[in-house]
Every structure is written in C-alpha cells, then in structure tokens.
Amino acid sequence: MKGTIPGYRTEIALRKTILLGKDEVTIQGRADGLHPDGSYDEIKSTYRPGSLVRKLESDPHHPYWLQLACYRWMSAESHDATEEIPDRLIVVDARSLECETLDARHWTPDDFESWLVKRLEAIIKREGERRAFVKRQKKLAGLLAFPFTEVRSGQQGFMDEINATCRAKGRLLGQAPTGIGKSLGSLFPALKYAMEGGTKVAFLTPKNSQFTVAENAAQQLAKSVPLRSITLVAKAKLCLNDEVNCTPESCPYAKGHYDKVADSGLLRKLSRRAVLTPQSIKAIAKKHQVCPYTLSMQLIPRRDVLISDYNHAFSPESNLRAKMAGADLEAPRPVVLVDEAHNLPDRARDHWSGSLKVADAEGTRWHRALAKILSTGATTHPDPDKLNRIATKMLDAILDESAGPVEKTRERANLDLELFFAVRRFTALLSASIERDHFFLRNPQPGMWEVHCLDAAAYIAEKFEDFSSIIAFSATLKPLDFYRNELGLTRPADKAIEWASPFDAVNQKTILIPQVSTLWREREQNYGKIASAIQRIVAMKTGHYMAFFPSFAFLDQMAARLSPGDIEILTQVPGQSLRDTAAMLERFREPLPGKTLLMLAVQGGTFAEGIDLPGDQLIGAFIVGPGLPAVTPVREKMREYFEKKYGAGFDYAYTYPAMAKSVQAAGRVIRNGDDRGIVVLMDRRFSDVSSMASLPAHWIDHIHEARPGESLAGHINDFWT
Ligand code: SF4
Q1: CA of 239 to the centre of ligand 1 (A)
Q2: Residue with CA closest to ligand 1 atom 2
Q3: What is the pTM of this model?
Q4: Is 319 in the pocket of ligand 1 (CB under 6 A)?
C-alpha cells in the first residue's frame, strides 16, 4: 500500500499514558499502516483465513478488534470525536496472499476506554496480590518450624544437604532409606528456602496414591505457619461429569465459572485452607457449581506447595513452571522435589514414545490418507512432513466445521479431534527421532509404526531447567551413577549421596540363596525347590510373609506347588481391581495370632511399592529372581544403545531396572525402628557384581550367602530367637 497510496505510512508507533488511582499506566504499540485520512490498517496473516474471518465477524471482543480499537483510542485526541474513521483489519491468506478487508465498527474510543480501565484495574489488582503473596511468604519463612521436637536419626543430615542444595541452586540425587523421613525432611528445608525467595515448591510423585504422604507433610508444616498446598490431578479425574466436555453449552460447571468464582469470593476464602486435596476441591466446586479443574488452575499460583504426578512436569507438553507462576512472568523458578525418583527414567521414556496405526483412523475421513503414509515398507519410515500436512488439514477441517453451520455428530467430532492429537503427537515424536540414536523406530505390523525413546535423560534435563533447585530422592537409587546418567544429573557440581539407614541393620536378616535359578531355561527344574524353601522358612515363625515373583506366570507355578496346610495364601491376579487389592491388603494387615499368612505377588506390582506394612504386618519377604525385563526388540535396542554409550548395555537395560524392583519389594519388610524381619533373595544372579552394586549399603554388610548343602534353619532360628 505504501507504494500505491500517496502519504500512506507504515509501522506507526503509538503511546498513551493514563492515570488509574495513584498508578500511571503507559500503553504502547505499533500499527501496521496509517492512511492520510487518519485511519489505521492492521494486517493479520493466517493459513486459515475463512475460519479467522468467521471468528472476527462473530466476536466483537476478538483481540484483533481490541487491538484496532486501542490504536483509535490512543490517537482519539487528534480527531473530532464525532468523526467516523474507517479503520480496517486486513486478513491475508498466507498461502495465496489473497486479502479480505474488514471494517472496524465495534468500538468507540469511550467504550474501549471503559473496557481498558476494567482490564487494567484487574491487572493492577493481580499485581498487588502477587506482591502481597511474596511479602507474606517472606514473613512466613522466618516462622516456618519443624513440627517435631526431635529429628529422626539421619534426618538432620538429609535436611542439611537439601538446604545447602537449594541455597546453591544445585541438583541432588539422594538414596535415602526408609525411616529417614524423606517427605517432611525434604519439604521443610525446600519450603523454607522457597518462601524466603518468594517462590514455591513442586512435590512430584510417580503415582496419585503417593500424594497422601506429601499432603500429610504439608499438614504438619501448617502447624507453624498458614501455608497453602494444593494437589493437582488430571482433568478427567477432577471432572464432575461422566464425560469431559468443557463447553458452557454442555457443562453447567463451565457456564459462568469465572463469574461464580468471583462473586462468591472463593479464591479468597480458600486461601485460609492449608491443604487442598482433589477430593476437597471437587466437593467445594460442586457446592459452588463451578469446574474443579479450572478452579485448581486458578488456585495453583496462589499456593506455596504444589503436589502432583510426574506427568504435569515431565510430559513433552507440560509446563508446570507456567502453571505455578500464573500471570506472573517474572516469578522466580520453583524448587522441585522428585519423590521415588527411580521411576522417573521409565516414565519419561514413555512420555517420549508413541505409536500410530491405520486402525486409529477407522470411521474417519482420514483413513485412506493415513493408510497411504503408514503402509510404507518396513525399512522406510513414514514421512513426518506428509503426516504434518494431514494434521494441518485435519485442524483446518475441525476449525471450519466448528465455526461453520455444519452440525456434526458429537461422536464424529470427538473421533476427529482424538485422531488429530494422536497424529500431531506422533509426528512430533517421529520428527524428533530422525537420525537420533536414542530413539528406535519400528514397524511391528503393516500399517503401524512405533517410536521408542531409549534414553530420556536429555528431556528430563530440559524439564529440570524450569526449576531453581532439583532434589531427586528414593530408597532405590543404586548404583548412583546409573541414575545420575538416566536422570541427566551429570554436571560436575551435581551431587549424589547415599544416606545410612536410621534403623539398626541387624533387624533385617538378608539371606541369599544362590543354589536356585529362575533363568527361563532352568525354571522348570527349580519351581519345586523354590516352593519348598519358602514353605520351610515360613514354618519357622508364624507371621505374615510376602513372596514376590518375576511374573504372573511364575506366580501361578508357585501357587500350584505351595500347599496351604496351616498357612493362608493370598494371591495377586493380573489386572486386579482397586477394590480387590484394597480388600486383600486389609486381610493381610489383620492381626491373626497363631496363623501364617503368605501373599504371592509380582515384583514391580501394586503390592511391591508404596505399601506400608509396619510391625508384625510383614515379617518376611522372598524375592524370587531379579525380575529382568522380557527380551524384546525394544529392550535389545536399549541394551545396544547403552553398551555403546556407557559400555554397560546389559546392566542398564536389564539388571539395574530389575534390581530396583527387587529392592523395592524387599523394602516392604522394615518400615520403622522396631521392625524385625527376613529378606530372602533366591537366585544366583543376586550375587553378581552388578546386582550387589544395586543393593543398599546397609544390606551388604549383613547379607548371608548360603553355601552349597548348608542348612539355613540355624541362621533363621537364631535370628528369630
Ligand atoms: S468444565 Fe470442568 S466439570 Fe465441566 S466437563 Fe470440563 S472438566 Fe468437567
């Protein structure tokens, strides 16, 4: 236009200052073009011009109209107020460069000023709240106190290291045994540091079932100061409807959510609640007829502690830092505590892996096009650019149809959307995987492709950048170097520490029986030996025992060979419901004087992690074989990859992950200082150097390895008497 209209100017800088109470606010911007008659052009380029034009025509509050209205308001003083000046929005098709011009007609300068003043007042209010939040935190930091008069053995050293790490903005990997008081011991120093600096703490766990320990720790700390914690779960888990459909037309809780929250003063009222759990948020939201998920999002920036699943921090699309900061773009980075950190490498690998198959497009119009791309030969991977083009077309169609008059069935619209997200996610993974050896791309069947992330350390490290200090801890982080590498905590200044157990090591009798083998090819000959050893050992002392096997198939073989006699046997089954699991645990916890109870379960399963069975609830555990991951093409690729990278392929791909499960399962036995119990490791592979390197130090000093022909009865009886 510059060349065709005499006097036409481009890139016009505009600026205006207004007074709001005692605050002076300056607004500035740059208009794309100015005509000699004083009218402005704003040019917007898009790949979906039809969709944008429809939105602009139906929404007078669209940000582009507000932008033009702002230019007019900023230059209003230079014109006669009665004069109509035809500002224009020019929508350019980014592909064809064709233009459509829309005349601005929605806003007068006075209307815009009223709107603007309201917005600015809200922003100023929010900034005031933010400053008050930081001031409050700094004040509370001095008052925050450890809630007990005595610190547990080993806990002070643990807290001191965390305190030092936070102050150095450092990164710490900590093998911290049961009983050290990890949750409270990590949250207390981290929160104190965070509050002093006007920031927050994210406490992340691998499973929702582990939130309670963090919530309890927050509740304990709330005795000294009115701190605020919130636990975040996925939208589907918080939703008050049977199906998540968040439009105001479909969901009564979405309709008028923000007005209802503002009118009821809910955010202010909830600032007096120390611990907000998903259950309490759901109940509050239901009472006020608002959406619990949106309410959670509004609350997070106002809380000192956020408890959540790893997903919210480590999935590719997650942005926990932004959620915690809210509108505060200057917010300092929070501190992150990663509980049960031995789970994070696999979880992150899962986040960076995915698959797409032609069948995913069944029932949609994209079926043929996807089949063409995905049915490439086994040696030629699908072209990410072609998939990207399909995703773009899908998005165009979805947006056009949602903005247009065509009424689609809900079911079809959902299918299209689901497929769009699946294609987009897979395309991103596919593009990331090309020519990167930490990915493995495979075509397990015609029309299906899988991308497997073999090593997610770089992605975890990237996500860690969102936090000022990183504290990753667990009772199962050995060998420390393996987890340092897996978690990307490999800077020279990163610390890795193993703390001693606070319990007397003699309270756990660890027996290694290398005379049995659980190797696949030798299992058949060993089933009987293993069953009879278990049976003999549990007969020596009445009580509750657990036997952990490498798989359900192995467990079934044992269940068939163990004779109940005087003992009651409880058996975990594949895909057991939550209700059955809880019932089984309840039965197991029941004191049954004079009766022996034996639970058969799998390593890595529900009963092997995060279950607390103190005192007589569990007096012995049999760990039958290190449950090595199955040999699959993906596992074998991992082995090759880690062999090349660290010269320890088998250990990284098989031994260490298996040993983490074995140690976790055995860790159910000693839960506090008064507990006594036996741990029986059954398989010669437990005596390998790599397996031994995975054991906590306090086990190694007291382990008894059975010699050929040796009777263990004396050792075990001595321990019990
Ligand atoms: S708005 Fe909230 S309550 Fe309504 S469907 Fe969405 S998540 Fe569920």
Answers
A1: 5
A2: 291
A3: 0.84
A4: no
Q: Tell me if domain 166-227+304-349+456-502 and domain 505-720 are identical in fold.
A: yes
Range 9-117 classified under CATH 3.40.50.150: no
Distance, CA 267 to ligand 1 centroid (Å)?
18
Residue 401 DSSP SS3: helix
State which fold the 505-720 domain adopts.
Answer: Rossmann fold (3.40.50)
In this structure, which topology does domain 166-227+304-349+456-502 adopt according to CATH? Rossmann fold (3.40.50)
* Burial class, 29, CB count within 10 angstroms (exposed 0-12 / middle 13-18 / buried 19+): middle
22 vs 485, more confident: 485
| DSSP classification of residue 141 | H
Round to whole Å and give the CA distance between 589 and 618: 8
The pLDDT tens digits for 177-226 are 988 999 999 999 999 999 999 999 999 999 887 899 999 999 999 999 99
Residue from 209, 450, 270 nearest 352 by CA: 450
Domain boundaries, the chain: 9-117, 166-227+304-349+456-502, 244-297, 371-453, 505-720
pLDDT: which is higher, 698 or 81: 698
Q: Are 364 and 415 in contact (CB under 8 A)?
A: yes
pLDDT, residue 308, reads 96
List the residue whose alpha carbon is closest to atom 7 of ligand 1: 239
Predicted local distance difference test score (pLDDT) of residue 698: 85
Q: Is 281 in the pocket of ligand 1 (CB under 6 A)?
A: no
Atom 8 of ligand 1: nearest residue by CA position: 239
Ligand 1 centroid distance, CA of 236 (Å):
8
CA of 402 to the centre of ligand 1 (A): 19
